[in-house]
């Protein structure tokens, strides 16, 4: 889809030539463009519109390039679709007269910039629109990190209140093992999902962190723009602060993962403890029963009238005594 924006707001494609680009267009936004739309933009601007494959290159030399009459930039950018997060390439082709953006997913930052331009925000040059986009992209990532921080706080409460939450309502008894296992599985999945999202946010921040100083350094020389460095510096500082915030959140995710694994180890130890108690309780009765099951001719208890009740009582006592001892020690 092709969207055109001039200094005063949105523009319509020229009727002549179908998707032809008006000369007054400053910002040309291509969302999953068709070959016809890409050709029309190339004819109007004189620059090549990069493909999705080209924008997906990971080398710094491919993501930050100087062209004959401008700059070619690309970065991965996170977006949220339903309950999942997706990392798609985002491209910028910046010249003296135009800004061409190439994307393959909806981004809230683009809608906010269109709104700001419509409300009268200055967007007379491509670099002005580029700065607006950088500000909104950074703000969008900041909102995502704030939401992630709140989610991690809720997840932390679930983990450290696990024993309380795992108890049935109006009961002091622990929840069944199956229910506790399912709760721990949900916690682990929640930690994994948030860790994955943080990784994608970090990749987005890293891309913007490389783009901003590159454009600031080439702004006057390549684009012939006398833009002050104040806005570039503000964006750079915002990205640095978000980097630090993301690092703390990543450390928090690792801490919660360790805590969840610690809970799993405790649950496993509880199972092994029960098995140990059962095996210890079963050893003395087995020993007594096996002893009286031996086929020896001279066994005093065989001729004793109370030999059988005596053996049964001995077996029962040997099972009860360990249970009482373990109960007193609080093993179960």
UniProtKB/TrEMBL annotation:
InterPro entries: CorA_cytoplasmic_dom, CorA_MIT, CorA_TM1_TM2, MgTranspt_CorA/ZnTranspt_ZntB. It holds the Pfam family CorA. SUPFAM superfamilies: CorA soluble domain-like (SSF143865), Magnesium transport protein CorA, transmembrane region (SSF144083). It is found in: Membrane. Its main location: membrane. It is a multi-pass membrane protein. Keywords: Membrane, Transmembrane, Transmembrane helix. The keyword Protein transport does not apply. The keyword rRNA-binding does not apply. The chain crosses the membrane at residues 271-294, 306-326. Belongs to the CorA metal ion transporter (MIT) (TC 1.A.35) family. PANTHER family: MAGNESIUM TRANSPORT PROTEIN CORA (PTHR47685). This is Magnesium transport protein CorA. It comes from Methylobacterium cerastii. The lineage of its organism: Bacteria, Pseudomonadati, Pseudomonadota, Alphaproteobacteria, Hyphomicrobiales.
